[in-house]
Design brief:
The protein has about 375 residues and is of the alpha+beta class. It has helices at about 15-30, 60-70, 80-90, 100-105, 105-115, 130-135, 165-170, 225-240, 275-280, 285-290, 360-365; strands spanning about 10-15, 30-35, 50-55, 70-75, 125, 140-145, 155, 175-180, 185-195, 200, 205-210, 215-220, 245-255, 260-265, 305-310, 335, 350-355. It starts with 8 loop residues before the first strand and ends in a 6-residue tail after the last helix.
Amino acid sequence: MKTIMPYQTIGIMGGGQLARMLCIAAKAMGYKVAVLDPTPNCPAGQVADIEINAAYDDKDAAKKLAEVSDVITYEFENVHYSALEELEKQAYLPQGSKVLQICQHRYLEKKAISEMGIRVAEFCLIESAEDLEKNVAYPSILKTTTLGYDGKGQIVIRSEADLPKAIEQASKVECILEKFVPYSKEVSVIVCRGTTGEVKAFPVAENIHVNNILHQSIVPARISPEVELKAIKCAEKIAENLGAIGLLGIEMFVVDGEIVINEIAPRPHNSGHYTIDACITSQFEQHVRAVCGLPLGETTLHTPVVMVNILGDHMDKQNMSNLAPYIPLLPLGKIHLYGKADAVDKRKMGHINLLGDIDESLKAASSTKIWKD
């Protein structure tokens, strides 16, 4: 039997809402937490034991995080892998920098998945405006190879009318061009791999996006058992082939009953927030278990759930703690706010997990004025 290391302090690169929920899970399990983030009193800093405020590439700050931590993880993939390579020399980073290097670059990510024999959208690397003009097809999507989330850095090219804006982007930054996938549903799987090679997936989530931002995750996903199994098998295969440690959030398309992989995030994922209230083990506890060498927890869903994101658009900007708009939903659900200082439109400020019958939860959410334009 593998000896469980007596870790005391978990260090987290990044201090946003994902780190905050990791902190809460870790502290419930008896760990202390240190976070490194440029913003003082960041969401995770509010609940962590130690908050280090510095840029992610600040070597002195990274050294300090390493000194106070027994094990280190990261909450988002936009920490440059070279900074993590340096950190690996000073501290135990179970996730390593290799998976991050692949997942933070869309071309490398698509190439890696394709080489596993798993289907992705047709794609090609775009390094100039000339590349784009030579390879463009309608419809397609131009994405920056790095950075960008919630639709940022993405341009849908439906016709020649969309080309000027796309050409402008392609002339400034490296991109990937993806042929549009005629999907029937967007789904995702949160999968976790432990240090022993143990792999467990959470139930498949069906995702609804509005303006390229996740609006709702519905679990169980309204797909056939056959498609559900295919999605989980793809997620498990990716985790094993990448040699990942910890969580992967894998976004997928359902196309004619088959799975097409969209993107991978090597961390907790927005579409996995439902697990906090609806599963035996949350995605955040599972990640802590994985990076600390503990056995993975059971992922069984104990109630249907609809997760609904709360954006800055939906908040009372004068009184961030005003829960009045959400009161009609509270008998059905659990509210999670992230402690952000300002309510910024299109920015994720929290979420609600509506538990119980899916149709009733969707009806309750749609009956409020919160998510209406």
